[in-house]
Amino acid sequence: MKILITTDMYEPEINGVVTSVINLKNGLTQLGHDVKILTLSQSIHTYTEEEVTKLGSLPLKIVYPGARVSVTPHKSVMAELEEWKPDVIHSQCEFTTFIAARKLSKSLNVPLIHTYHTVYEDYTHYFSLNKNIGRSAVHHFSKWISKKCDCIITPTEKVRRLLYSYNVKCPIEVVPTGIETANFAKEISAEKKRELSEKLSIPEGKKIALFVGRLAKEKNLSEILEHWKKIDLNRWLLLIAGDGPYKDELIRQCHALGIEDSVLFAGMIPREEIIGYYKLADLFVSASTSETQGLTYIEALAGGVPLLCKKDDCLDGILEDGKNGFSFTNQEDFVNIMNDISNGKIDMALLKENALSSSEKFDTSAFAKKVAAIYSKFSGCY
Q1: How many C-alpha atoms does 137 have within 13 Å on its Cβ side?
Q2: Residues 196 and 115 placed together within one structural domain of the fold
Q3: Do 68 and 123 fall within a single domain?
Q4: CA distances from 230 to 47, 273, 281 (A)
Q5: Ranges of H-type helices in 166-321
Q6: What is the pLDDT of residues 167-219, one digit of tens each?
Q7: Residues 168, 214 within the same domain
Q8: What separation in angstroms does the CA of 175 have from each of 31, 134, 235, 288, 297?
């Protein structure tokens, strides 16, 4: 099949949508499909590199930090894609490139599949001062998007239920996003671990709890910091890998709580280096309830890192409580689990082993095969 994937976000940006698109493209290509990407450039210039076309765009931070909008109609690009004649178009974002995807779908009379990555109800603080008005806007917008699509893919049952609550009528398929699990499972040498520890100035003998992700309000890292002050700080270091608009506020919170010596902000980590951070970690922590799936949870498991995450429907099928990690609902839960780990009451070696084995079902190859089957169902192409 010829498959066009459209997305407002792509490399060099790093987030869950970008990771999902890259893994899908790689998986589909390995299956023998011809895949092209239509996305936005980080400048006003339009250009094509190999199979990726980037449309000139301008920042639109009023919608969301990092959001961009195209600046011209890009008629020549659209004409080239029409001439290529994709069999199916798979949209990954609801804004600029969705409009292009819809136009191409109509002009070519091919199915438009859309992956709903973002629970926008948790992002209303970016575009609405009133939460209820923001949620109402999200309901109407999501329903409008669905009317333009032949099928919507959601990464979890949680998101499918949410869309049904919006009265979305088009078919909805649940397909968990896949990752290259083998890349995260690879061990790194003790020397490389030591070099990374020294680079980060991590005190010897400290257990490491890791968070990987965008430092934004909806990720709820503030809750982790509130819990962190209650554990044995002589034994643990919280390593935060990522950057974002909420970083300065989190740093201020650390100082206010008096935990700045036990929290390390490592900044944005290149994709090719992040595996080393998972290999340093004893535990992966998160209090976010805004995830549609949470790829970093799966990356952690594939790296053999057990989870300690706030209970949420997005963890269904990922976190197996007591087997590959633990869920918590409040500070007492969090502190008790951390103390049990510190005092050797939990078999961490078994948890790590289970983490590795539980990640196998999320491999990229399985992900791509499931998505390709949906393409075939709606396009009639194989």
Answers
A1: 16
A2: no
A3: yes
A4: 52, 31, 20
A5: 181-185, 190-200, 221-228, 247-257, 274-280, 295-302
A6: 998 999 999 999 999 999 998 999 999 999 999 999 989 999 999 998 999 89
A7: no
A8: 17, 27, 39, 21, 16
